[in-house]
Each structure stands twice: as structure tokens, then as C-alpha cells.
Design goal:
Blueprint: E1 23-30, H1 33-39, H2 48-64, E2 68-74, E3 77-82, H3 93-115, E4 127-134, H4 137-168, H5 172-179, H6 184-195, H7 204-208, E5 210-214, E6 222-226, E7 232-236, E8 239-245, E9 248-251, H8 258-263
Antiparallel strand pairs: 1-3, 1-4, 2-3, 2-5, 5-9, 6-7, 7-8, 8-9
Helix pairs in contact: 2-3, 4-5, 4-6
Family: Belongs to the tRNA(His) guanylyltransferase family.
Keywords: GTP-binding, Magnesium, Metal-binding, Nucleotide-binding, Nucleotidyltransferase, Transferase, tRNA processing
GO molecular function: GTP binding; magnesium ion binding; tRNA guanylyltransferase activity
């Protein structure tokens, strides 16, 4: 680039290089998504089309950014975990965050017709983003556990809330008052006693959220069968791995306990060159 007398303005740019040897997490969240889902007639309490669209957009991000070792999503949010040794964009936080958010947002819009073929997009959705550093493996595990616990707490509440509104005829204010001060055990009892629903039998997609991992070169003791949609499901141990793209695996399973991390030691391991 040719130099000019105006180039001095670059001195006003701030350096935002992230600390080395820390896990980098970029979390995106939908902006005003209550209004967005109402405008676009999302099914309550969960719209599988919307959740699958979020996951497909997240897969686009993982396809483009190879240093992401894991992504976790629930509701209108997704967290992308970059390996602690990454030197992408010289670890410039704003560069990493803005590229992830912009690619996710554009993917969400472009893929919308595939999942909402009968619902035209009324206006452009927006997502915000933040970058957080976690210096230890345990810090990272606790962060992901926090997000999955949040998924469970919110889904249990929303499942009860919308059952009371849709099937008991309560107003939103009445349903909110009915659930005020209740514990998880109380909500489970409401679902079972009033609606004959065992919360633990609801789809794990709703209760546990979605985990995206990179495909291994080979999966030991794996069997593969086609699904009704033509996609492949790989059974590894007790987990069903849905091979949604050549480079990613979709899981709906517990990541709070130790077993997940024992089954997938490569996530926290050394980054391959």
C-alpha cells in the first residue's frame, strides 16, 4: 500500500491482542430474539427448525475457522471454543469476534429458506458477540457446564410455562405467577401430574442443547446407519453422532460429567499442526 500523509491516523488504532495460552471463547447471542421469534411465528417452547438453523450456521463457522475445537449451542446462542494455542489473526480479539459473528449472521440469513420454507424472513436478525478468555482447562469446563445447566433450567421453565398457557388456558401473567418461586422438583411435578409428561423423556436437543465436534479420522467401534433424511448416524458407545457435514459431528448429550471429556480427550489435547 502506498504511503500518504494521512497514514498517521493508524496510530489511533488500539492493540487488542488476547493473552497467550488461554482458551478463547466467542459467544454469540440473538438480539431481541423474543420479538424475532414472535414475528416469525416460532413454535413454543421449542422450534426445532430454529434450533437446527442455528446449528447449521454454527457449522459454517466451524468449517471456516479450523482452530475451533468445540461449539455449544442452545436457544439463540452459540459458544465457539478456540484452542488455547491458536494464533489466528495474531489473537486480535476484535478481529476474531467480528469475523465469527458476521459469518454466523450471514449464514443464518442465507440458510433461512431451507428451514423456514413457508415463512418469509420479515427483517434481518442481529447477533451480538463477546470474547472471554479462560486460563485453565477447568475454567473452560465450568463455563460449558454453566451454559448447559442454563439450557436445562430455561427449558424446564419454558416447557411448564407454555403448557400452562397452551393447554390450561392461563394468561402469560397467570402462568408466570403459577411458577413463581417453584423449584425444579415442583416444575417436574407439574409436568407429570397435570400433563403426564416425564421431563427426562423430552428430546435431549431441548434439554441438553447441541455440541459440535470435529470428525475424527476414524471412530473406533462405530456403526453407521442411514436416517430417514439420508444423513448418517454413527453410534459410538452410548452416543449417537449425526454426521451433518464432513468435518463436524452433532451431539445432544451431557458435557457436565467426566464421561464426555474421557470419551473426547482430543478436545483439550495438544493442537495438531
Amino acid at each position: 500500500m502506498a504511503k500518504s500523509k494521512f497514514e498517521y491516523v493508524k496510530q489511533f488504532e488500539t492493540e487488542d491482542r488476547l493473552l497467550p495460552n488461554c482458551w478463547i471463547v466467542v459467544r454469540i447471542d440473538g438480539k431481541s430474539f423474543h420479538r424475532f421469534t414472535d414475528t416469525h411465528h416460532f413454535m413454543k417452547p421449542n422450534d426445532e427448525r430454529g434450533l437446527n438453523l442455528m446449528t447449521r450456521a454454527a457449522q459454517n463457522v466451524m468449517e471456516d475457522f479450523k482452530d475451533i475445537v468445540l461449539a455449544y449451542g442452545q436457544s439463540d446462542e452459540y459458544s465457539f471454543v478456540f484452542h488455547k494455542s491458536t494464533n489466528m489473526y495474531n489473537r486480535r480479539g476484535s478481529k476474531i469476534m467480528t469475523n465469527v459473528v458476521s459469518l454466523f449472521s450471514s449464514s443464518f440469513v442465507m440458510l433461512w429458506p431451507r428451514y423456514f420454507s413457508t415463512q418469509e424472513l420479515q427483517y434481518a436478525p442481529a447477533f451480538d458477540g463477546r470474547v472471554v478468555l479462560y486460563p485453565t482447562d477447568q475454567n473452560l469446563l465450568d463455563y460449558l457446564s454453566w451454559r448447559q445447566a442454563d439450557c436445562h433450567i430455561n427449558n424446564l421453565y419454558n416447557t411448564c410455562f407454555w403448557k400452562l398457557v397452551q393447554e390450561r388456558g392461563l394468561s402469560p401473567a397467570q402462568a408466570q405467577e403459577r411458577l413463581k418461586g417453584t423449584l425444579s422438583s415442583d416444575k417436574n411435578e407439574i409436568l407429570f401430574s397435570d400433563f403426564k409428561i416425564n421431563y427426562n423423556n423430552l428430546p435431549e436437543l431441548y434439554r441438553k442443547g447441541t455440541i459440535l465436534l470435529r470428525c475424527k479420522d476414524s471412530e473406533p467401534d462405530a456403526t453407521t446407519t442411514p436416517t430417514r433424511t439420508g444423513r448418517q448416524m454413527t453410534l459410538v458407545g452410548n452416543h449417537i453422532h449425526t454426521k451433518a457435514r464432513p468435518s463436524t459431528i452433532v451431539l445432544h448429550t451431557d458435557l457436565i460429567g467426566a464421561k464426555f471429556w474421557e470419551d473426547h480427550p482430543e478436545i483439550l489435547g495438544a493442537k495438531k499442526p
